[in-house]
């Protein structure tokens, strides 16, 4: 009888290992497709919103989801190395034009930010199937509180960006497009 239990445990472990490997394979393949990934997350978020709207409940779950996303957003907009702590060490982000250029590195990279948000929406969606989590609350109060929390947090984050002169977005930054071949430019002039 012990052999049967070991075989079942081994087959579950093998299945779990195979599933984990396949999931990681597709996750790795999705890495360069930023727009498609975010579009998929938008669809998952829309499904979650429609479920909450149709049930007219689960506002506490939605509020928790909003707080979690706000926390992720702060990590996404913050530099990896905290300038206030580095100022004590002497190494900090450049604040003058003569300072050495240091690229902006996020505390939470875009891929991990996307993955965490997508998982959060999926978990929140699954939580809507447990009626014990449908706590009756007056949702406008939660919404107002979240908006105030968001505004105060973003104000603090924007002041931090202004103080240490960094921009966490690629908008307007130059990108390397590769070398232009001289052969293709000479053909176009003929």
Task: Give a short overview.
The protein has 190 residues and is mostly helical. The chain has helices at residues 2-30, 34-55, 59-77, 83-89, 110-127, 139-164, 182-189.
What descriptive keywords fit this protein?
single chain, 190 residues, mainly alpha, 68% helix, disordered C terminus
Account of the 3D structure:
The chain has 190 residues and is mostly helical. The protein contains 7 helices and no strands. The protein has helices at residues 2-30, 34-55, 59-77, 83-89, 110-127, 139-164, 182-189. α3 runs antiparallel to α5 and α3 (59-77) packs parallel to α6. The chain is globular. Mean pLDDT is 83; it is low at 184-190.
Counting DSSP E segments of at least 2 residues, the number of strands comes to: 0
Round the mean pLDDT to the nearest integer and report it: 83
Helical amount:
55-70%
Number of distinct helices: 7
Radius of gyration: 24 Å
Structural class: mainly alpha
Distance between the termini: 83 Å
Low-confidence stretches: 184-190
Shape: globular
Strand count, sense and barrel status of the largest sheet are: none
Q: SSE string, helix = H, strand = E?
A: HHHHHHH
Q: What percent of residues are in strands?
A: under 5%
